[in-house]
Structure formats: structure tokens, C-alpha cells
Protein: S-layer homology domain-containing protein
Organism: Candidatus Butyricicoccus avistercoris
Amino acid sequence: MIKKRFIAALCAVSMFTGSAYAANIADFPDATGHWAYDALSNAVADGYLNGSDGKLNPNSSLTAAQMAVILNRVLHTSDTSRVYPNISQAEWYSNDANMAVSAGFLPVDGSLNINNSVTRGEVFKALVNAFGLAEADPSIESVKKFNDWDKMTLDQRRAAAVLIDKGILNGSDNGGLNPNNSISRAEFMTLLYRILDSGLVKIHASWNEEQTEETTDTPETSQQEQTTDTTETSQEGETTDVNTDENQDTQEETTEQPTIQEPEQPAQQIAPVLMFADGDISALSKDNTYNTVVLSGKVPEIPQSYWDKIEMARLVINTTGSDVMLDNNTSLKADTIVIGSGNGAVTLDGQITKKVEITGSGRTINLNGVKLDNLAISGINNTVVIDSASSIGNMTVQVCATNNIITVDGSVTNANVNANYTKVNGNGKITNTVLKGSHCEIAEISESFDDSGVDNGLEGVQISLNTPKVPAGGQLVATVTLTGVDKPKTVSAQWYYEGSADAAFANSAMQLTEGKTSTYRKTITFEKYMKLWHNVKFVITYKNTVTEQIETLAITGDVEIENYPASHYLPDASEVLAKVHPYYYSSNTDYTQDEKTVFVNAKGYSSKTQYLIWVSRSAQMVNVFEGSQWNWKLIHEFQCATGKSSSPTPIGVTEVTYKQTGWFTSSYTCRPVVRFYPGTGYAFHSRLYYPGTNKLKDPSIGFPVSAGCVRMLDEGIYWLYNNIPSGTTVVIY
């Protein structure tokens, strides 16, 4: 890695470090052996990273607030003409957020949550805006080589394309740019130093010691916002720049630092991008021809000269704090003038260039008497005024350039309006207008107007879902109806059942028209204990022909299922009667609940009470039913022990006679007792306890062991004792 601290003759940059913060990488143990050690070391030495509590937290996710602090330190921003929306000005980061939005590397609409982790795609945008690298119409073919290029927003694609073409962004082993992943502090510093140390950008400035001392107190995170390094390894395995082993922080970068090929110059080598950050452009010379010159920060005093011009391919105006005026007497001559990030009005007066790009946002641009071949707009929320003396060949409002207001009082040959919410007014003339953006307001000043390419996507489309109740044994049928379709388009449609896509109901080329319907049919397997509500979902996806963004619309609903009555699932009575027997074998298994229910109802048993008891000798179970003759329902099953082979519990139908609290003898105690078979000693009772105690004498259960009574566990016998009334039928079989 090239080590340079910007102290050349034309680049006297004194980076600041506060006395409260360490300025030596050795003071941060968590940087030792880290894969990004060089970038971290430079960041500490240059005062960009201060850390907290003796830690740099290199693997922690970078927040938007921290990114703003770091970029403000790099560029020594100071202007606060704008206030970042939706934040409290009492927060530690408020001043940095205001400076960052004023400089244009935080979005003017406040769409970036300042406290959240910033994504890689958002970082791409911030970096190109901060260093004047943004282009209004870059080729994105290099971006399309990555497998997740379509996951980026339109402006993120443009930013990524610039960084890829400049050799800053490389891609990861997974073949992606991972735009929606968070970025770690180490990863961000790696990208930043690829810009600073690669020779791509050279910063000219003359910050003095007094200014340095005034700006040393702001940490990149407050004491309340100190970042905890919760990740043991770099997230670079999910990024595009450096590959690391997830179990090791010491792996070296797998890609070399990019080398920028600099053209030969008569006097000196000149970086592709010269950035003047403090209002002093005296280093520019008419003896050199420059590639890109970026005016950043304070508006410079621009020399006036009609004849002696300083020539450059691109002049980028990223200034803040005051307005900029360029006319024929300005000594700067550029093939393309870019009104980039920053603030303040920009006025271009006269035939000073052939091409203008507006990549910044929230700016006012006055074009007075210009003769342009091309005007391209990619920023948002700008106000552009083309006066009556101006003429423009091709004016293009890029797809991402929403909410611009353009006043045309001059002439435009071809206007291509691709962005949503564009307003074009004025008293001039446009020869040909091609409109593709939605919700635009275009004045009737065009000789030819074509809006056939407008694509509102799925906006306004409504889906209604009809899910009738499924009768027992029926088929699930769900139908959607789509309305609010402005014009036919081809979409992909998919039905989901219980959360899973049904491959049989997928249509990759459904013609979406007004009133279009789609019906889903599903054969249901009916079971006794089946779910009575089933979920269905219908999803359509559409790739907008203008924005190339994927749009999705979905509806979900629950379908009620009417099941058969429980009797439908009961086994055949003749089979059950043939199966049930009263003989115990150790290999016996209990009957199913349905078999028990069928048995007592098929036998036609009745009872004087609402209960019926069946003692199954073969299964050693006491089964309790509730209901009435022919309609008994099983409510309890209790394990038991009937009479042993020498004294079996008699087969038969009897009833409960009376209850006793217990039997107390000199050899055992059992309690409580529920008597059956009138005039006999047969009863339901607990297992045998030692006399007068709660200590089991005979714990046997589950096989014939008694003298003829039915022994039960305490839970079962107490339930009978407390709930079963006298007169309840008892079946012994």
C-alpha cells in the first residue's frame, strides 16, 4: 500500500488527532494482525479513526453517522447550509450530518437513517459524491457482470459502475457486489484508501494548524454510541473488495491495489482527478491539460481570462456555502461541466462548454445563453432554468433523477424524460419529447410528444381474493381478480399453498390485463384431526421496462375447511367387535380411542347416568365415556390391574353401587373405594399401601394381579371417586 500523508508542495494536508484519542496503531490491540491493518494504521495516523476505550472495532458495522464523521475529516468540510432531515440537533452527530448533507454525500431527502448500519450500496454512492467521481450517464455494463447487480437501486448501480471502472471496486468470490450487506469499519477504510492512495484522486488544500486544532474534538462515535466489536472475523467474505477466512482476521488482501495509468505530461504527472478542497486553485496552470478537476468546499476565486484558458476534460462543481458563476471570461475551460454534490446556485453564462451533467441534488442551476450538445441530469430535487437565449441539442433526465423541475424558455431539440415526478414548464420550444417517467407534468411546448413508453409498473393494480369455504370431501378453490391495470403487460405469477410455491401453478408469462383472473385448485386430504384453515397466497412480479426494478404485488388469505363429523373416521363396527376380547396376554396392546368408541356404541350399552365405564381386561385399562346410548364419547383412559388368573374380575355388565373413603385392615390400606357388582366385594380402589401410611406395599399395575377388584393409580381412582355417581354402568370385558 502506498504510504502518503498529503504533504507534497501542492498538497499540504495536516490531518488532525485530538489529545483525547491515541494516534498510534499500536494503541489498538484489536488491529494487530487484522487483514486490513495497513488501512487501519493509515486511518489512525491520518486522524480519520479515533476508536473508543482503546479499541478500533474494525469488524463492527459502520453507521451512516460514523461514515459522515470520517468523510468530513477527510475533506475538512465545514459548511452547514443544509440541515439533515428527521434528526435531533442535540445528537452528537448532528453537526457532522449537516455538513455531510451540505457537501452532498448524505442524501438531501434524509432517506438514509443516520443511526443504522450503512449498506455497501449506500457507501458506493457516498464515495463517488464525496470525491466528485459521479457521472450522469456511466455505462453499467461492468456492473452487470456481477450476479447481484439487479439488487441495487439505479443510483447505486451508477456509483458502482464508476468505482469498478476506476479500479476501486473488485467484487467478491461469490460473484457479487453485495450491495445490501452492511459494511464494516475496516472494509470502509479499505475502500477509502484505495481512492486516496491509488493515485486516482489527489487532494490540494492548505489547512493550517489553527484550523486543525479547532477540529480535533469530534470522535467518529460518541461515548453513548461507542461501537462494540461483536464480530470476531471480518465480514469481507460477504463483500467485494477483500477476501478473508471467516475464522481468521489475519488473511491478506487477495487483490492488489489498483494502478491508475497516468498520461504523460509536459511538466509533471497529474492525477486523473485533482480535488481542490479549500478554495485555492492557484496550483492549476494553463500549461497543463487536466482530466478531471473537482472544486470542493469553499468556492474559489476563479481567475478571469478570455484568452488564456486552463483546459480540462471535466470540471466538477462540488462547492458549498455560496453561489458559483462561470462565464466566457472565466479562465477555466472544460469539455464537460458537472454540477455535482454540494449546495448553492450554479450559473453558467455563455458558450463556455458543450456538455453539462447535473449529478448533485437539491441544487439550483441557471443556464443563460448556453449552446449545449448535451444536458444530462441524474440528481434529484434540482431546479434547472434554461433561459430564452439558450439552446440544447439533447436533454436527458435519467431514470434515477426524480423530482426535478426544469424550466425551458429556450429551445431543446430532443428531450428524453425518464424519471418519475419530473416537471417541465416554460415558454420555450422542445422539438421532440419522449416521456417514460410516471407522474410527470410536461408543459405543452413540444412539437412532437411520445408518452407510449411510460411504464407505471404495478402501481394502482389491486388484487382481490375469493376463498369460499371448502365442504367436506371438496376441493380447495381460490380465485384472484386483478383490477386497476393501466395497460397490458407481461408478469410472472405464482400461487403458494401453506407457505410453499406450488410448481403446478406458476406462470412466468402471464398477460396482465384489466379484470384478469387466476384460479388455484388443491385436492385436500381429509383426516380426522386435520387443520381447518389453510393458507394460500398469490404473487405477481414485474420488471419495470423503464427503471429495470423488480416490482412485487401479493395477496394472502385463509381458506376454511369443513371436515367430516368424527363418526366418519371411526373404524368398521364388525371389525372392532371381532377384535375386542377379554383375555389378557403380555403381548396385548391397547385399543385405539376410535376402536373403544365404536365398541361401546356398537354394543348398545346404556347407563342411568351420563357416564359409562368399560374395564378392558385384555388391555388392563379403565375407559370412561360420557354421553348416552349410541352416542358415547371417550373422555378418560386410566391404567389398571384386574384380578389374577386364579381370581379374575368377572366379565359382565353391572353398575356402581356406592363409595367408601377406603379400606383399612391390619395388612394393608387402600383408598378411596368405588363399589360395583351389588352385594359383592368387588370394587375400584387404589393400589395397596402399608396400613395407615402413604407408602406403597404393592406398586403392581398394568397386568392382572388383584384378588378380583380393579386396582388403579391414585389419579384414576380419585377421579372416579369424585366424579362418577352411583348407578353408572360398568362393563367388564
